[in-house]
Amino acid sequence: MLAFHAPALADDAAIAMKVEADHPGATIDRNIFGQFAEHLGHGIYGGVWVGKDSPIPNVRGIRTDVVSALKAIHVPNVRWPGGCFADEYHWRDGIGPQSGRVETTNTNWGGAPEPNSFGTDEYMDFIHQIGADAYVSLNVGSGTVKEAADWLAYMTAPATTTAGKERAANGHPQPYTVKYVGLGNESWSCGGAMTATYYTDRMKRFARFVNNYNPAQAPDGKNAMQRIAVGPGGPETADYTDQVMKSWSKHDWAWSIEGLSLHSYTTGGWPPSYASTGFDQNAYARLVKETLGMDKLISDNSAVMDKYDPKKQVPLVVDEWGVWLAPTPGTNPGFLIQQNSMRDAIIAALNINIFARHADRVRMTNIAQMVNVLQSMILTDGPKMVLTPTYYIFKMYVPFQDATFVPVQFDAGSYRQGDIDLPRVDGIAARDKAGHLWLAVTNVDPNRTASIAATIEGASARSVKGQVLTAPNVNSVNSFDAPNTVVPRAITGKVDGSRVTLDLPAKSVAVVRLD
């Protein structure tokens, strides 16, 4: 691996940081690095599922290369089957012999044929292969309580029951572990255009009657299933937060929830028109500025939740986030195909940093989406696969999974592009379970290097080393022909007692361990 050690510009003063290692904060739940896989475009078919008879290497129809790549970033959970698709999904269409699966049309995404080849058992096989937990989105929009309850029985009931016998006949005698269930999706829009009051009343029935029968997931145990209600998608649906949390504060033994969702994308306006390739620094700056609004959105909704839940028992689950850009020219616009650039990697790092700062309330998120759709980890084309810049951010941040948040104080400085003023740098720190101290720093400025001078309070360091992700330009991408344009390189810093210096290239994200 090549080492990268960029000099700071002579006229740039060092940016002072104070890492308060002696003031530990909340745990950064590993679930904030969750993924999302909807039946959308090539996200499932071609991206995850190729079929058992495919010449592309696979295990029971699931791509081997994709599984290996996802295992390397320690994916904690995968949300499935949607998204908007979830509220038109009928689980019985996707179980049993492949020859008997029901073929439908995906009306949400491009009118594509939906063969239902990838159903419940294939999804469970997939998450088992990558080592992730299940996050199943229930059909609250067009489905019934009984349909959802029967689905959970199919997945979790003992093989002595009728539902369990059916699952066993399909190849899995043991109950599945279903750690998370979503009680609908965007019920204020594609999930049924419901008012907050109507949704809340409907949601209670699903929360009451959809049971998990797996004995390893007793309701009062540490592995109990978590029910996540639909929350807002922006200021215009903010009443969802208030209505759902007000109802939760008055709930009795018969029902409850263990999470409230929030959806927020970086789009640059609706419909998304910003290009994923060939853009200039003005487009870069505008999307970075919009991304930073995630902090206020979380703060505003957390304040509402605090009114009803001051002890923060109910997590805020940002289960759709990421950069939503204009579809790649020449592709089906309903497939949401876009490239993934250094800009998107920086935006991913900024979002993760925001989530970490709100770790007391934000304990789970899901980037949209995992493969071939929106801000994905992986792109595939037939047998070819390429890892995106965003993938490498998730891989570099693995040490932050379940680590203890450590406050970092710093003067962010300023990066100005046209009429847009942005903080020049951003950073977070954490201590992992082994006791190692980690620092993640993002240099937002695409033109100037940044010299970081960090003082560590309550600890000392002997060495500073890790990885940095940068690129020739903010619009640089990894392609099938040039897969290594944006990849991490080794980076080292200097140590003088409790003072650490680290020189960052322009437009970069670094994650280093302070030994």
TrEMBL record:
GO molecular function, one term: alpha-L-arabinofuranosidase activity
Catalytically driven reaction(s): Hydrolysis of terminal non-reducing alpha-L-arabinofuranoside residues in alpha-L-arabinosides
Keywords: Carbohydrate metabolism, Glycosidase, Hydrolase
Segments forming domain Alpha-L-arabinofuranosidase C-terminal: 319-508
Listed GO biological process terms: L-arabinose metabolic process; polysaccharide catabolic process
Record InterPro entries: Alpha-L-AF_C (IPR010720), ASD1_cat (IPR055235), GH (IPR017853), Glyco_hydro_b (IPR013780)
Regions annotated as coiled coil: none
Family: Belongs to the glycosyl hydrolase 51 family.
Protein name: non-reducing end alpha-L-arabinofuranosidase
